[in-house]
Design goal:
The protein is α+β, with helices and mostly antiparallel strands and 443 residues long. The protein is 27% helix and 25% strand. Helix 1 packs across helix 4. The two termini are 22 Å apart.
């Protein structure tokens, strides 16, 4: 829906700017024609049916229904008859020779001729006004600047088990340069990395008064565009609070709609996953969540649950491809399908994962980090039903929607970057945030 509104907005802006350019062009003709003493019959803003009109000193001023430019009527300028020729001379003579017609209307008085110089000046005034208009806009934009939404080049989340964390990156680090090129917004980070080459890029980051230069992995990650495995800083505003069917982890807190989350136990929050890591770490401890409520900062107490959780949304079953199915139609014997690690471990959709290899799971992103950093052939997952031993597989980097189990959202499509669960644990998801505009909706 937002994309459609954005397209309509762009079309509307282009339409109005095009109309403004035509209006300025016609105003140039109008103004010079008056200065040179030409007859002006009408000056109109827009086209189509007249909405409002007023005659002043022989000139009809009007506003028309379609706001796309305007026009000026100058009868003394070059007419279509002068280009295409007038009606047949015999016909004119016949009309002039008619006699005895008492109802014949008198012809209007001919307009005085216009000098070639006046015609040139009037014709040239339109394009000249377009040039002047463009210069005025350029000067204004140069002086005032073009408003745009700028996402600061601040890192929002670094999973504690990730390679980026081991290299030395932390949430809140401000990227100031990539491969020696200064960056001022997260968009600059995206484009600079996209334009780079090699397995790593050299990130210059600022952390307080400290400046670090680090070689950080950059790649296409599963065939996508070249990028960093980092998320930018994301402010959080609560949209609504409620409970999931399992009871939301934050539903009983004193958070209120429109609260802007600032800190957890005096540590600044830089993104949604960062918030989860801070809020859900150290089970059973009481923490304070600092929020901006109206014009005041308020501290809300929060008891970290004994167990956090990530839910398994689906267990994909192996299946033959299209080509194999076609071969089977002609009698080709297909090899039996191998079960997935999740099937071997008796995982089921809806299973709640509490820990992986003994470490509490706070979010999908953190879980992915645990899987990626594990050197063991097998992983031990503690779920609500029972303990599972799962063969380790390498996580992929595809994006997916977040799940529901943190009790912090449901609804429209999620905007947050979440990493796909390893094959065989597909759709193991946590519901943390539905973002609409600049608000995060807790459910």
């Amino acid at each position: 829906m937002l994309e459609i509104l954005n397209i309509l907005y762009v079309i509307g802006v282009v339409f109005l700017l095009f109309g403004a350019a035509i209006f300025v062009h016609e105003f140039g003709h109008f103004w010079v024609a008056l200065k040179r003493g030409l007859v002006v019959e009408e000056f109109a803003i827009g086209f189509g049916p007249i909405i409002w009109s007023k005659e002043h000193e022989g000139i009809l001023y009007s506003i028309r229904a379609i706001p796309a430019g305007g026009f000026v009527k100058l009868p003394q300028m070059l007419t279509s008859e002068a280009i295409e020729g007038t009606a047949d001379s015999d016909e004119r003579k016949g009309e002039e020779g008619r006699e005895g017609d008492g109802n014949k209307e008198e012809s209007p008085e001919p307009l005085p001729p216009v000098s070639p110089l006046s015609k040139i000046l009037v014709a040239f005034a339109g394009p000249l006004m377009n040039v002047v208009f463009a210069i005025v806009i350029a000067v204004l934009l140069w002086q005032i600047g073009l408003p745009r939404q700028v996402n600061e080049p601040v890192i929002g989340y670094v999973a504690t088990h990730s390679e980026e964390y081991k290299i030395g990156l932390r949430p809140g680090d401000r990227i100031v340069a990539i491969n020696g090129k200064p960056v001022e917004a997260w968009q600059d980070v995206i484009y600079t990395v996209l334009d780079s080459s090699g397995p790593t890029v050299k990130l210059k980051v600022k952390r307080g008064d400290e400046v670090l230069t680090l070689d950080v992995p950059a790649g296409t990650w599963d065939g996508g565009i070249r990028r960093l495995r980092l998320d930018n800083h994301d402010e959080m505003v609560i949209g609504e609070l409620g409970k999931t069917n399992r009871g939301g982890l934050f539903a009983d807190s004193e958070l209120e709609p429109n609260d802007r989350i600032l800190k957890v136990s005096d540590q600044t929050v830089y993104s949604q996953y960062h918030f989860l890591d801070l809020a859900l770490a150290d089970a059973g401890t009481e923490k304070s969540i600092t929020v901006k409520r109206g014009d005041q900062e308020v501290k809300v107490q929060f008891l970290t649950p004994a167990q956090s959780r990530v839910s398994v949304g689906a267990i994909p079953e192996p299946e033959h491809g299209t080509w194999e199915l076609l071969l089977s139609k002609i009698g080709w014997d297909l090899e039996p399908l191998q079960s997935t690690p999740a099937m071997d471990a008796d995982m089921w959709p809806g299973d709640i994962i509490h820990s992986a290899n003994g470490e509490p799971v706070t979010s999908v992103s953190q879980f992915i980090g645990i899987v990626r950093s594990s050197d063991d052939e097998e992983m031990i997952l503690e779920t609500e039903r029972t303990q599972k031993v799962l063969k380790r597989v390498e996580p992929s980097e595809n994006f997916m929607e977040l799940g529901e189990e943190h009790g912090v959202i449901t609804g429209e499509k999620v905007r947050i970057s979440a990493v796909k669960i390893p094959e065989g644990l597909e759709s193991g998801v946590d519901y943390f945030a539905r973002v609409q505009g600049d608000k995060v909706f807790f459910h």
